[in-house]
Amino acid sequence: MKILLVEDDKTIAEGLEYSLTSEGFEVTLCENKKEADKKSGENFDLYLLDLSLPDGSGYEICRNIKEKQYAPVIFLTACDDEVNVVMGLDMGADDYITKPFRIRELISRIKAALRHYQKLDNVMDVYRLENILINTKQAKVYRNGEEVFLTSLEYRLLLVLLNNMGQVLSRNQLLEGIWDIDGDFINDNTLSVYIKRLRDKLEEDSQNPKIIVTVRGLGYRMGNTRKEA
């Protein structure tokens, strides 16, 4: 597995490079945004980005990556306030770990993010829900023929529902489905926010949803879906 590591602190970068290489990862190290932008076109399996860089921010690198490739992004930062966490997730980041951190925890989160993407890669079909088309092979979603941008978390939530068509999923099942490691920002309130955002983006009338249906007292289920030939 190839990882692009973007970190301007040489001590941290060298330690991470050694630890990740010892785990069997192939690591390419960049010290700034300019180097990272050049390398990001090589299609790495995972991107590990420091937020504060001398010539830009990890947010900008993440945005560029997500426009070109479907791959997990993990932010490394000393800033853990909620605004920055949500901003990172909205830009498509898959995880957010604050410094200082334990290397075993970071490796666990890297492996978890890779597992999520491997699970989604196993679904290779096109599905239609009302006026929504989901191309899981390309990881793209269309509404009335126009592509809809979903963050990584929104897309994973949609895929969990799609992979369990016909089943009512409790809130806990959805949380476990989109995040299989501890993350303080992935909680019940956050799930409500992302359900609402998905409905706003996909439903004709988000107040009367037909795609993500609430089953009162139990949870949510995917509406009527058909597999395209």
TrEMBL record:
Keywords, in A-Z order: DNA-binding, Phosphoprotein, Transcription, Transcription regulation
Portion annotated as DNA-binding: 124-224
Function according to Swiss-Prot or TrEMBL: May play the central regulatory role in sporulation. It may be an element of the effector pathway responsible for the activation of sporulation genes in response to nutritional stress. Spo0A may act in concert with spo0H (a sigma factor) to control the expression of some genes that are critical to the sporulation process.
UniProt-recorded name of the protein: Stage 0 sporulation protein A homolog
Highest taxon of source: Bacteria
A GO cellular component entry from the record: cytosol
Residue span, OmpR/PhoB-type domain: 124-224
Modified residues (4-aspartylphosphate): D50
Domain Response regulatory: 2-114
GO molecular function, one term: transcription cis-regulatory region binding
Pfam families tied to this protein: Response_reg, Trans_reg_C
Lipid metabolism is among the record's keywords: no
GO BP field: regulation of DNA-templated transcription
Organism this protein belongs to: Anaerocolumna sedimenticola
